[in-house]
Amino acid sequence: MATEQDPSTSRPRRAGAFDVRMIIALLLGIYGVVLLIMGIGFTTDAEEAKAAGVNINLWAGLGMTIAALAFVGWARWRPILVPTEGEEGTEDHPSGK
User: Fold this and answer.
1) What CA–CA distance (Å, rounded) separates 52 from 43?
2) What mean pLDDT is predicted for residues 68-94?
3) Residue 41 belongs to a domain
4) Checking CA distances to 80, which of 15, 33, 37, 51 falls within 20 to 30 Å?
């Protein structure tokens, strides 16, 4: 007699928010937005002169924000699949307990 399996438990799940790429994207995004705000609104001419005339906060913030978006895209495009219970590769403890 064949037993029916619940389709929701037989499919692997995505790692979602616990994917390390999403954590990295979050951190890069926060730092990137802070640097963008600092570069746009709070950079003085004296600070730009120290950086050879380049608004380094603006450019670093832009680069970090783009990198964060790339990490989010990568995580969505190639998600990590977490196996569910009862799939191949999951074995009981060797002692049988």
Assistant:
1) 13
2) 79
3) yes
4) 33
Asked if residue 7 belongs to a domain, the reply is no
Q: Supply the range of the domain harboring residue 48.
A: 17-78
Of 45-49, 68-72, 83-87, 88-92, the poorest mean pLDDT is in: 88-92
* Chain segment 32-69, per-residue pLDDT in tens: 999 999 999 999 999 999 999 999 999 999 999 999 99
Give the residue from 22, 89, 31 showing the smallest Cα distance to 63: 31
- pTM of the predicted protein model: 0.69
SS3 81: strand
**Residues linked to residue 81 through DSSP beta bridges, in sequence order:** 14
Q: How many domains does the chain have?
A: 1
Tokens of 83: 């196996």
- Whether the Cβ atoms of residue 35 and residue 91 lie closer than 8 Å to each other: no
User: In sequence order, what are the residues at sequence separation of 6 or more whose Cβ sits closer than 8 angstroms to the Cβ of residue 14?
Assistant: 79, 80, 81, 82
